[in-house]
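Hey L., structure's done. Input below.
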Amino acid sequence: MVSPQMIELIGSVAACLTTFAFLPQVVKVWRTKSVRDISLVTYASLTLGVFLWLLYGVGIKSIPVIVANGITFVLAASILVMKVRYSR
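Output:
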């Protein structure tokens, strides 16, 4: 049986990895202004989904869910905004 502390650790590591996985993409797009290979539909869907997870976290009062999805929302939304802006 896995302890509650181990479950929290697994969740925290997963949240960090999935959240900060967006950071290199944000930096790359910001530096190169190249968004040609980024899917608008994918990032729009992802950004909306992460926002809904954020609302869910607020609803259940889960700080880890709120923090992870709050940061992920900012990063994913940044890529989405740059996709729209630099596609012009």
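The radius of gyration is 15 Å. The mean pLDDT is 94.

-- N.
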